[in-house]
Amino acid sequence: MKVLVAVKRVVDYNVKVRAKADGSDVDLNNVKMAINPFCEIAVEEAVRLKEAGTATEVVAVSIGDKACQEQIRTALALGADRGIQVETEGAVEPLVVAKLLKGVIEKEQPQLVILGKQSIDGDNNQTGQMLGALTNMAQGTFASEVAIDGDKVNVTREVDGGLQTVSLNLPAIVTTDLRLNEPRYASLPNIMKAKKKPLDVHTPADLGVEPKAHLTTLKVEPPAERQAGIMVESVEQLVDKLKNEAKVIS
Amino acid sequence: MSTLVLAEHDNATLKPATLNAVAAAQALGADVDILVAGEGCGAVADAAASVAGVGKVLCADNAAYGHQLAENVSLLVADLGAGYDNVVAPATTSGKNIMPRVAALLDVGQISDIISVESADTFKRPIYAGNVIATVQSSDAKKVITVRTTAFDAVAAEGGSASVEAVDAVHDAGISSFVGEEMAVSDRPELTSASIVISGGRGMQNGENFAMLESVADKLGAAVGASRAAVDAGFVPNDMQVGQTGKIVAPDLYIAVGISGAIQHLAGMKDSKVIVAINKDEDAPIFQVADYGLVADLFNAVPELDSSL
Ligand SMILES: Cc1cc2nc3c(=O)[nH]c(=O)nc-3n(C[C@H](O)[C@H](O)[C@H](O)COP(=O)(O)OP(=O)(O)OC[C@H]3O[C@@H](n4cnc5c(N)ncnc54)[C@H](O)[C@@H]3O)c2cc1C
Ligand SMILES: Nc1ncnc2c1ncn2[C@@H]1O[C@H](COP(=O)(O)O)[C@@H](O)[C@H]1O
Question: Which of B24, B243, B244, B250 could form a disulfide with B129 if both were Cys (CB 3.0 to 4.6 A apart)?
Answer without folding.
Answer: B244
